[in-house]
User: Fold these one by one.
Assistant:
Number 1:
Amino acid sequence: MPASPSTARAINDRLALRLLEREGPLTAGQLKQLTGLSRPTVADLVERLQDGGLITVVGEAGARRRGPNARLYGIVADRAHLAAVDVRTQGVTVVVSDLLGGRLAEASLPVRADSRTAAAVAGAVRLVEDTAARAGGRPLHCVGIGAPGLIDPGTGELRRTTGLPAWHRRLVTALQERLPARVIVENETNLAALAEQRAGAARDRDTFVLFWLGHGVGAAVVLDGALRRGASGGAGELGFLPVPGTAGLPSASGCDDGFHSLASSAAIADLAARHGLTAAEEPHEPPAAALVRGAVATGAHDFLDELAGRLALGAAAVSAVLDPGCVVLGGEVGHAGGPELAVRVADHLGRLSPLSTDVRASELGGGAVLHGALFTAREAAQDDLFPRQGGPDDVGVTRPDAGERRPVG
């Protein structure tokens, strides 16, 4: 059934906006070439999007012909402000950006382990509000939050998790109550995987597993381009994996004797101490990151090889079940190890598994969580702001980089 005129306009307008987001400012002629639409149709959509305050003239394109230069149209980035919030057990980091992801303000707040829940929540909320004010005072449209713990796949809420501070769950609720914004919460490792797929080590992969190597250890599973959270939101709880070489077995109440005991920051620090390695800790990162970075710089081969063997145990288990073809060593520790650690893990993994698995170092490190939270907030805001036909004849529009809907008309 042919699309109605209103649906066709929404499809074409949304496609043009996605192209402007991906390619940057374009002329009407370039939009015509990229969309395949007629010149009058492009002229109409440009006028509609200008009238709607979504695009504006941002300059001129030089042309090798007589007459005026063609106007360049770009998305009005300041149409909406967004926030990304990275919630860790030790503190909170906030980034505020415009609609295109341009960073406007950033701030961090450490939270002491003995801080009272109410004080920690109040301080984190003020941090978000103050950072938004420094970015220009425009009300936040969407807020993406990355937090450790399980996200309920049915409600999208952060579930109560043993070992995590109570202020984590209270913070999400407080932000929802205080801010005139849509608040989206996602597991930090899942957001890191999203960022590595969009702008990091997994740009060419639709299927991969990201190992989060920070204070703790976890994994995110991406299969056929889709993030897989599991029935209860617990897919990738790698710390609970029973593995050889640990003192015992993990339990429902703790992962101290699981893979966590081999690959957490504390476990890696203990391993480094046995090899006689020390390093000055850097603020805002797990102690193991500095140790691994120093080991790579000084050529501490025995330490790196033993660490790689530990990580390969987890990678072999994941590969045997999922066969992802690619494992990204993420988080601050994975990023610190770089290609040197990744090559060693791949070598050990090749001896443990018959399945071909590429092992790569993270390109974004611990900052991947904020990157992923911003991507999530941007997509939510653009879904709200970009034209959408809501009637029964709506056929939908997907992202240009994921096989976009063909233009109509």
Number 2:
Amino acid sequence: MWDYFKIFSNPKKFREHGVLGMNARNYYIIGRNNKRSLYPLVDDKVQTKTLADKININTPHKIGVIEHQYEVKDLLKIVDGHSEFVIKPAHGSQGKGVLVIKNFSDNVFTTASGKQLGFNEVYQHVSNILSGLYSLGGQYDTALIEELVHFSDAFQNFSYQGIPDVRVIVYKGYPVMSMMRLATKESDGRANLHQGAVGVGLDMRTGHANNAVSHNMPIAIHPDTKADLMTLQVPMWKEHLMIGALAYEMTGLGYLGADIVLDKFRGPMMLELNARPGLAIQIANRRGLKEVIKNVDKYYPQDLTAEQRVDYVLNNAT
């Protein structure tokens, strides 16, 4: 087992374990494989959803889009007939600005935590999104309204309130590393490792848990639900990896992260893509990305379809 403290406090140990650092990721991996002109395809959630629909990647259904301040007054018309939905900034990150409405009736919005909001409060939230309060770089933004995800009962005991998701790292079209992020009380129901969520490394062949961490330290039991994390198994594993492989076809990005949720009714759905995915996934898996990336460059075949690449991973990943 890795000695986490020694590895991540010692640059030599860091390199010996093949851990990909931020500078190497930015220069050697992102700089060489991701054209900056392609970034808008994943930085804008509305554009990402439109592209995904064209090649039949499963995503939450779009209810509406608000681009201008004068359109906010039409919010009630947009959500009319929908009792639950999510409002999110098109250019947001790390879950900031995401408002989950579990019930909407009689002009009362009830959030995932049970808090009741009036129209004026939700109006203000949407206005804040448009002003860029939650967007990357503070730029003017768009509010995306989409259907609420109902996460699978398979993860009922593994996440505290929030929806768990699978992060898949894709390199040159091959899914190469993955983890599941589980919300905790500390993370306020968000699947964000920096805010205290649990990261569970997943075996690339099976989708079964192989390791788990919280605040970069190994754990075996979820701090709130007390679930045995090593029993976690992601259903429909090939379908999860297919979303990652197809995301490469969709964007042309040679290195990306795909965030996927398992809906109890619609199966695996792509939430968003990232052209600059973080590196904590290595800690969750107790394995560095350098070795995996070298293997793809040296041994993995080229010119395969998305499904052929996924099948190759399922049969050959180590």
Number 3:
Amino acid sequence: MVWQMTSVQQISEADWMNQARRTPGRLLLTVWRIPACYPDLPVMVREVVLDTAFRAGMMASFAERLIQFDCWPLISQRERDVLDGMRMIANEHCRMLRWEVDRVHRALMDTGLKIVLLKGAAFDRLGLPNSAGRLVADLDILADRADLKEIESCFNDHGWHSAIKDDYDQKYYRQWMHEIPPMRHQSRLTEVDVHHTILPVTSRLAPDPVRMMADAVFLPEESAEEGRGVWLLSPVDMTLHCVVHLFYDSDFGRGLRDLMDLDGLLRHFSRQDVQFWDALVERSQSMQLGRPLYYALTLVHQLVGTPVPEATLTAVSKNRPWFGLRRLMHWLIPRVLLPGPLEKRDRLASFAWLLLYIRSHWLRMPPGMLFAHLSRKTKRRMSPDVRNRRTI
């Protein structure tokens, strides 16, 4: 449980040091919620906070939060220099992302095709609080599956080409996944992921991408030619996509950042619309995403302190699993999402990561396909060529 402000003021230096040594992820969450306590922390504890934020991909975002809460003048020049460096990197990521969106517009401007911005690009376009300082690796867009061939052809003409060369991986993406193989630009080396749904087509859950595309919102660009702008998912669909990305992905390295993304979306959209919570629950049911939303709202409320209404928590609890599985998931997820101590390997966290990794694949594929896929991947990783490349 995250400390409250009243208890933070009473924590001794020894308690801070113990928290930093044993559970640095929870320490970061505490300071994230209450940035005003950061300048008064012991130097060694502040170093752990910054190290944990760096490992979670949240260092630039943490810097922006210190600035937002007027803590910037109260920290040392050395800390400001380090955090300013990460802010510069994040600003460059943002500039790259916006330019890539512009280039995608240019590539498709004569086609009349509808594409929807996802994740970081959507957060930036809306000016969401969690977009400041957010690092991005690529541009994610959603398109109608019937338009994929035309989009891929247009991208090829404008310098993007498939980043996947292996025949099996090409088949894996095109037949079973929720996106075509990532496309990398030949000169800028930036990648665009073109999605046609938000979960693999082989997944046990099947949210309807046609409805998501139909309910997308058009935001016109300011001071631009008529008709120019971007499409974004509706607030409830954007939130559900974040939920799916957090609880159905097998890449947990940025799990805490994704959790904070969810916290930012929930706070922002619920302030904008008093009907947001009811609409979110209703949409999750119609999209077969009631179980993921239960995990998401329960854990973001417990770990981050997101103000989820009690009525909403009660409503989503109807989708909770049986008691044993529920307890197991509430034990596993924090150990994977929250960074552990750097100086020693946490065997329980490694075990939790393995179980959630298996779960993510189990939910993505039928058992026969999963066994064949993992067997092929294991065989490839054990091949002499791959082992030799790892030692270079």
Number 4:
Amino acid sequence: MEFALTLALLALFIGAFWSLLWLGAALFAAIGLGFFEKLFSEPVFVYPATWLVIGLTLVMIRNRFRLIQSVRQMGEALIKALLPLVALIILLFFAVLPATGLQPVWDTGRASSILMALMLTLLLFFNAVFHQTQGSQPYSTWLRRIILLAVVLLPVGSVLAAWALWLRIDQYGLSLDRLWAALLQALTAAFTVSYSLLLLWRRRAALPALQRANVGLALLVAVVLIVVNTPLADMRHWVAEHQVKRLLDGRTTAEAFDINYLRFQLGQPGTLALRALADGEFSQSQPELARRIELSLKQTERWSQDPLVDTQNLTDVARQFKTSPEGASLPIPLLNLLVEQNSVCLSQTEPCQAIQISNESLFQWLIYAPYSTQGQAYAQINAENLNDWQQTGTLIALGAVQAQFNNDCRSTQPTTDLQRIPEIVSTYRSGNCLYSSQPTLESIRQQLFIQSDENRQAQRE
């Protein structure tokens, strides 16, 4: 407890120290003195300053032992008051579970993390309160039995958490987060099963046995954490192999295969897996997948805005767009405009969605970047000049006609049947979904110029 409190105070002091430094740097930068802002970001200053502050803070904390002792006693009192509540929550959850079934738990998508948080909290609080093996026992007999019953039933929570995690892995495959969660669950299960067995087996003499078990379990945790941070158990390699295997087995489609995750989240193992996949027979039968891998390997940074295609080759540029309806093609002047604007679509490994709207005068094409809910609208503003194209605005998803479907429509792109609603300004409908058009300043100026020109011609006539 004292060690944890020391670390907490140390982190608080370091955070306050750097916050003040950055506030001071921002203040000087506001008057044109950027020297301090640059200095405070240099490693040659950051590391020595941080370690100096750590040393001074530790000396101050150790010289105020009574403060640490007082905070510890307060923390122990709060934990002692909260432990029965945590135990009661877990017992009530297990009690109502047979009546509600497991499906509502799985539907949350957070079942595993919620159960793990509650179980770890109970284990932490239990050890903090029942750390003494001699003397009077805390709580009354009936309250102590409730707490011990909750600890005995913890393996049930471990099974449920593992089941929930397995459902996610089976549906989406392994990721680093899920693999770390599986490791954490396995270590937590070692604690919960050990505690449950010792409490059932040793009964009143279980507390000394639990303390001895904590030493062995702590050594197990230390060994596992050391091993997983060595090449002996590189989890990035396991995840990359698993994701590629799901693709080859057909459990993941080529369109859903997350190339960027392997490229930028899994480091060298992910890059090597992508190169091996690109050189294999599977990619030869999936040209679009091979192209996405090739573009991803060209990227130096995940969010780089540098084009990945030859902007002088409009055929290569056009391959960055998936058009609707099928067979439609982006006009060459529009492709030139997108190149001139350095469109985000040119720096993406995933193709942008380009939707041709034939029944709308304000825009003829909507272009959606990957995972974007806002479409960029483009139109040929001069019917006599085929090369005169302009970005006219942005189409924003509002929601659904029926309120209960709002969430679905806010992440849905319109189809080619997009229709303007005449009664409402700048509002459109595609199926059950509603959209709003926000014009660009340049398009407004263009419309004002056209109206002014038309008015002058009318006056002349």
